[in-house]
Specification:
- This protein is α/β, with parallel strands linked by helices.
- It folds into two domains: 153 residues, Periplasmic binding protein-like II (D-Maltodextrin-Binding Protein, domain 2); 103 residues, Periplasmic binding protein-like II (D-Maltodextrin-Binding Protein, domain 2), CATH 3.40.190.10.
- It has nine helices and 15 strands.
- The strands form four sheets. Strands 1, 2, 3, 6, 7, 8, 9 and 15 form an eight-stranded mixed beta sheet that branches. A three-stranded antiparallel beta sheet has the order 13-10-14.
- The protein starts with a strand and ends in a 6-residue tail after the last helix.
Length: 271
Amino acid sequence: MKKLMAVAIAIGLAASVFASAKQEETPGVTTITVGTAGGPVPYGWTNPDGTLDGYDSAVIAAVDELLPQYTFKVEVTEFPSIFVGLDSGRYQIGVNNISWRKEREEKYLFAKNHYIYNNTGIVVRKGRTDISGINDLGGKTDIATPDGAFPQLFVEEYNEAYPDNPIKITYSDEDALRIYQRIADGSLDFILSEEVSVTLREQEFGIDVDFISLPKEEQEKIQNPKSYFLFPRTPEGEKIRAAVDGAFETLIANGKLKELSIKYFGSDISQ
């Protein structure tokens, strides 16, 4: 069985290797470097022994197992650096719950098959009634990590469209527990999140919040619900994508993708 080699990248610092198993170069086998942010839970996390875990890494490993012509090496980096790595040729694949966006489609190749279907909505204090959709967010307070993920991008686009009544956004790396506490006590009006993450956070923190499900057209304004593996828009990228697409067809047909989704999320959000 092939093992994934994981490499942690600290921006501006030397890379540190925390591989669970060293890989030997094999004649006829090409090493593919996969860039991922390795989070948040349950999409990804790092175990105490330094190995990667979570749905993203499990799917990467399952694809790797079906492609004997390739061996995957995983590098953990910051989310924006996944795209920088694809641009520079450092990474041949980017994986981190990456949804379709027009500007991404112009620069990168998306896998044919998605491996996540997210229900995206608004998280508010339990019992709150003045927010029921994205049209109610103007003037409200929000917090987002400045990492280029959908919560940040949507609010910035919203504020460009409604400059007279923008969302009051704070950029912060504040931990999730504190954010949920602030939602619960009313000092923060809302955050944008995926339903599966909210359910897990409520269980982890013991804090009840309300998740506002949105109609499809509103969800798609926040982010495309489908997430994909991403590849550089190059001949090599096209070749690797074709191989990965074939592997995904197998994982969907044999139920492995569904099995991994249930293992990490408690339900099938793969399709």
